[in-house]
Amino acid sequence: MDQIEPLFPIPLMRCPGLLDAALVEAAVEAIGNARIEKNLRSEQLFHTEIADPRSDELFRRMSDLAIPKLVDFGALLFGERLEWMVKEMWTNVLEPGGNQALHSHANSFASGVFYLTPSHPGSRTAFVRPPGGFEFNFRHHTRSASMGPFNAGKYVVPEAEPGDLILFPSYLYHEVPKNQGGVRVTVAFNAIPDRLDCWGYQIKFAP
For 50, phi and psi rounded to 5 degrees? Predict the structure, then answer.
């Protein structure tokens, strides 16, 4: 019998309802009183300053909840349950009409997004197929063609409710289309393992 193997897939972990309602409410309130700065590419996108979660009580609580999920996710990336740490966190406030440009996260191995407010169905986080690794650049995208994990160029998070977390490899490019709903608030972060070891060639990381 013929078999199809999912060769070299890219993992993305969805963790519904990881934050309880009280923590979501506290985070939204804290962000409303925080100092924010305008994004360089969008007039309707604002961020808090990047913070070490160890020096921010709210971010520390969120980070503590994310760590066990990062250990599970890291086992998919590296094949072993390593010790993980969240090294930086920040808030994104996307006003109606704004968008977040296509980007990836440098100097980390796993990244995550906590959703604090509902996202309009047309304004959910979208991930783009990595541009490299192909020997040809032909596509077949028509009204009748079926899109699946082997030929689609984009993946849109199907649901994004307050309290949800998604984790993804930091190199994976992603964006948020034009916000068609109300103010959209998320907390993003980058994480690293304590070490990586390749047959004794070891490198250690610290936040």
Answer: -65, 130
- In 10 A of CB 151, how many CB atoms? 12
Map residue 69 onto helix, strand or coil.
helix
Helix (H) or strand (E) holding 197: strand 195-198
Please write the tens of the pLDDT for every residue from 85-123: 999 999 999 999 999 999 999 999 999 999 999 999 999
pLDDT digits (tens, 9 = 90+) for 125-158: 999 988 766 556 677 888 899 988 888 889 999 9
> Cβ neighbours of residue 3 under 8 Å, at least 6 residues apart?
none
Show the tokens assigned to 138: 């032909």
Residue 140 pLDDT: 82
**DSSP letter at 55?**
G
As to burial, measured by CB atoms within 10 angstroms (0-12 exposed, 13-18 middle, 19+ buried), residue 126 is: middle
